[in-house]
Amino acid sequence: MPGYRDLARDREFRALLVAHVVSVAGDQFARVALTVHVYDRTASAGLTAMTYALTFLPDLLGGPLLSGLADRFARRPVMVAADLVRAVLLLFMAVPGLPLWALASLLVLVQFAGAPHGAARAALLPQILPDERYPMGQAVLSTVTQAAQVAGFLTGGALVAWLGAGLVLVADGLTFAVSAVLVGAFLLHRPAPRHPHVRAWPADLIGGARLVWGDRRLRALVALACVSGFYIAGEALAAPLAAQLGAGPAAVGAIFGVVSAGTAVGMVLLARLPRERGLRWMPLLSVLSCAVLLPMALTPGLGWSLVLLGLSGAASGYQLLANATFVRSVPDATRGQAFGLAVTALRVSQGVGIAAAGAAAQWWPVHHVIAATAGLGTLVAAGAAWEWKQAAGRSVPRF
């Protein structure tokens, strides 16, 4: 089995990793800066929340509409162009006195530009790491991304207080410029995927949807990924859960931290397993990611709640295998479009799950909402696991 030193020696992977981490951290800076900026100007919690939501919602359209660009053009130039577009847009967003409607419009465009970049990166990674290093590389990328998100949120507030929201937006633009330089300078040129025939955009979108929906194996992988819409309730309700336990803001950070740490550990461990063994465990782990949260119905204290959430995070590391298997199973010529559609389904499931859990927590105790959501998720995960078993012809391991 290849080791992490093999990844560290790969110049292309190093450049891709550093470029991604830099831009992810910058994005978190910008999210903090925007929420502070909008609240300072409007004193409206509703407008502030809407602005924050705009950093996620465009992905729902950008995924299916723009991810196909990663299949029509060479992927390195797509990534560089997307980074440069985002850098320029963020510089415009930093202009003092910009009307809120213009700020929101530019923000939507920034998020739209991220869709082809993400699809191109996902499609390139199996080409950069075409052997057994690929799942390890995906694990490293996912784990370091989570760390960059946490670090970006933690330091973003301090940067806004020190530099002001405008300069932080400029700094985020510079991170995309750095990413463009790294990708353009260190990634090898690869031609655009060869298509048997050139299709118009609507045909590309419909063809990608038919590919994912018509292939039982791909459909099962998307279903396994969408289980995250259920176990994410623990994170979505972190603040009210901490309040219900009589704990302070530190407990909220601990909840986010233990889930992220558990996920990172699960991904790293699974990446070390032989591919076939990991795939045999994947469906069971999807069920466990929800099932381990069922004891939350007993209203445990903070310590046991953190243990359960950490175990759920560790089991959710199966998402690494689902992601890697999906990307490897899709033909290279349609990989970007298919990945964008899968990401859209994932984001929709998470958004609906967060909204439903938040609404339910207005009426019922938070522990019970998390447990009920986990119970429903366990049933859905079992159905997705059965579908994967039928499609892949593999049995779920037993204790």
Helix-strand blueprint:
Layout: H1 4-8, H2 11-42, H3 45-53, H4 58-66, H5 69-72, H6 75-93, H7 100-128, H8 133-163, H9 165-186, H10 201-214, H11 216-226, H12 228-231, H13 233-236, H14 238-244, H15 249-272, H16 275-291, H17 302-315, H18 318-329, H19 335-360, H20 366-392
Written account of the structure:
- The structure is a single chain.
- The chain is mainly alpha-helical and 399 residues long.
- It folds into 2 domains: 1-185, Up-down Bundle (Growth Hormone, Chain: A), CATH 1.20.1250.20; 212-399, Growth Hormone, Chain: A (Up-down Bundle).
- The chain has 20 helices and no strands.
- Helix 4 runs antiparallel to helix 19 (335-360), helix 7 (100-128) crosses helix 19 (335-360) and helix 8 runs antiparallel to helix 15.
- The chain is globular, with a radius of gyration of 21 Å.
- Mean pLDDT is 77; it is low at 196-201 and 394-399.
